[in-house]
Write a structure and sequence with these properties.
The complex is a heterodimer of chains A (135) and B (421).
Chain A lengths: L1 H6 L2 H8 L12 E7 L4 E10 L2 E10 L2 H14 L4 H5 L3 H8 L5 H19 L7 H5 L1
Antiparallel strand pairs in A: 1-2, 2-3
Helix pairs in contact in A: 2-3, 3-6
Chain B lengths: L18 H5 L14 E2 L10 H13 L10 H20 L7 E4 L2 H16 L5 E5 L8 H10 L2 E5 L12 H5 L4 E7 L11 H10 L3 E5 L11 H4 L3 E5 L10 E5 L1 H6 L10 E5 L2 E4 L13 H17 L1 H19 L5 E4 L9 E6 L4 H10 L2 E2 L1 E3 L4 H7 L4 E5 L6 H18 L2
Parallel strand pairs in B: 1-13, 3-4, 3-5, 5-6, 6-7
Antiparallel strand pairs in B: 2-8, 7-8, 9-10, 11-12, 12-15, 14-15
Helix pairs in contact in B: 2-10, 3-10, 4-5, 10-11, 11-14, 12-14
């Protein structure tokens, strides 16, 4: 069962069952929704930005445990951070937060939250890590 | 015989059919691996028996040559093998070989009709009638044609039990503008067996041509294209124990004769001049370029293998398994089965499990070596209609055994345990 222990680590299930920052903001400065057409996972990110920092962030939507846990972890980690710093978050940072290896299909689940955040805030619409793939 | 008019009730396992014995003919189940392979995704693609792999290998090793042109012996052998495969496929669906066109798959067969027949026959203001349970392969080609021709798309609605609402059909056909009715014989998501013959009768009365997507029926049950009452029937090899890369379109001869070609190139012509060309006769008019010869040999061998088992026996086995699976799945309280009761479906069962995402279900199952499909199974509109973003699906073929359903149920209990909130 080692495979299962790796794929559904306690921290992932913990975030999945008790997500942080889940919900919406009443007057978001940025609200952006994206989906993974492959599996129908859907995430919306609401942000309030003050003095170049993420003052508040909430996510909503539906999807598998990986996509939802990654959204929860990402929101928790970026709240209060300067936008410049958030811009540098990449694929590997998300994988590190999740603490697991992901195959090509589930990788997109794991990265959907980051893609949604970056598209909403910076207008970056590529899948995180696509640049690295090309190099 | 499934003519589409009515599904026979649960027949019980056919005498002499032994799925455990059949399974031994499929090398994938003999390949050593960490845990045994429990393959419940035959609606996506079937596994291949030795007989198919060996036949393709014999072609490549023994008489690999291009067909229809060579004067030498192995070219003649290759041509004979290719045309022999066509005869086998034709016999499998009770058709004339002249009306069997080899394509790449069902999708290409449907596109052939949408382009060659559709462009010649559908004009602005005409309508194309499909159903809400179509696979994307029988939706998108018609959407492309409709937008090109300013034609209208209509849909036969799906009921809460995942069946077609035939009461709506007369109204949808009433204005006489429907030029083609496209319907799936057996739903790849729900396993629903559609009453194709009845639909075809009403469509013909309204002056429409009927295309049947038989991707899930020709591999699993006896199909007689004449009894179906259709004008075009599309199916694919890789779901019927054959290789990928080849499928077939059956078409009514008069329609095929009248249609312009689909792709232009070698073999589909009788005479080429710089000023123009004359088309070859059927079925070669629609087979441009070098075809998938080894794969044709493969589909021929697959048909032989299936006929050896007997399509009645294969279908009885599928339905036996789906009834068993539905019984066992119903024991899991958090589980919801999509679609009709077992007596009105083929060997496919899709379900949702509490609010656990199908990807998570499939990942837990995969950890036990159980392969199921998770997602929308290329039927997004159907899932939208059923009000679920995605589902998990188990599907069977002649090599599937009850022990695999036990493993599925065990895995689902485990998924509930892992993800219970």
């Amino acid at each position: 069962m080692s495979g299962m222990d790796d794929l559904y680590r306690e921290n992932i299930l913990e975030h999945y069952k008790h997500p942080r920052n889940q919900g919406t903001l009443e007057h978001p400065d940025v609200s952006y929704e994206d989906a993974n057409p492959l599996c129908g996972d859907r995430i919306r990110m609401d942000l309030n930005i003050r003095d170049g920092r993420i003052d508040a962030i909430r996510f909503s939507g539906h999807g598998c445990s990986i996509s939802q846990a990654a959204a929860s972890m990402l929101c928790e980690s970026v709240e209060g951070k300067p936008l410049e710093e958030v811009k540098k978050i990449g694929r590997d940072d998300v994988l590190e937060m999740l603490g697991i290896e992901l195959g090509p299909v589930r990788l997109k689940c794991g990265l959907l939250a980051l893609k949604t955040l970056k598209a909403g805030v910076y207008g970056m619409t590529q899948w995180p890590g696509e640049d690295e793939d090309r190099s | 015989m499934i003519s589409g008019a009515a599904a026979s009730p649960r027949t019980g396992a056919a005498p002499g059919f032994d799925a455990h014995r059949v399974r031994e003919d499929f090398p994938i189940f003999r390949t050593p691996r960490d845990k045994p392979l429990i393959y419940l995704d035959s609606a996506a693609t079937s596994q291949k028996p030795d007989a198919v792999l060996d036949a393709m290998n014999r072609y490549y090793a023994g008489f690999n040559a291009n067909i229809h042109r060579g004067i030498y012996k192995i070219a003649e052998e290759a041509t004979a093998a290719y045309e022999d495969a066509r005869r086998k496929v034709a016999a499998h669906v009770k058709a004339s070989p002249r009306e069997i066109i080899f394509t790449r798959n069902s999708t290409e067969a449907i596109n052939l009709v949408a382009y060659a027949w559709g462009r010649a026959n559908v004009k602005a203001g005409d309508a194309i009638l499909l159903t809400e349970m179509e696979h994307h392969s029988n939706l998108v080609p018609w959407q492309i044609l409709a937008s090109e021709r300013q034609a209208e798309l209509r849909y036969i609605p799906v009921t809460g039990t995942g069946e077609l609402d035939l009461d709506a059909l007369p109204r949808l056909l009433a204005d006489g503008r429907v030029k083609l009715v496209g319907v799936v014989h057996i739903s790849n998501v729900l396993g629903t067996i559609n009453p194709v013959a009845e639909i075809a009768r009403l469509a013909h009365e309204a002056g429409a041509v009927v295309l049947v997507d038989a991707s899930q029926s020709v591999p699993h049950c006896p199909v007689d294209v004449g009894a179906l009452g259709a004008d075009f029937v599309a199916f694919t090899s890789h779901k019927m124990l054959g290789p990928t890369g080849i499928g077939a379109l059956w078409g009514r001869r008069t329609l095929l004769e009248a249609m312009p070609p689909f792709l232009g190139g070698g073999e589909m012509i009788r005479e080429v001049k710089l000023t123009g060309s004359k088309w070859n006769e059927l079925p070669w008019k629609f087979e441009a370029g070098t075809m998938a010869i080894a794969e044709a040999v493969g589909i021929g061998a697959a048909v032989d293998y299936l006929q050896g088992l007997g399509m009645d026996a294969v279908f009885a086995h599928d339905r036996e398994l789906v009834a068993l699976a539905m019984e066992r799945l119903a024991e899991i309280p958090q589980l919801t089965i999509l679609g009709p009761p077992a007596e009105r479906r083929a060997g496919v069962v899709a379900f949702t499990l509490a609010d656990i995402h199908p990807h998570d279900i499939a990942t837990v199952l995969d950890d036990d070596g159980v392969c199921v499909r998770a997602g929308h199974h290329c039927a997004m509109p159907l899932h939208e209609k059923l009000g679920v973003p995605a589902s998990a699906r188990a599907s069977f073929h002649c090599y599937s055994v009850p022990e695999e359903i036990d493993a599925l149920v065990r895995g689902l209990h485990r998924a509930v345990k892992v993800f219970a909130k």
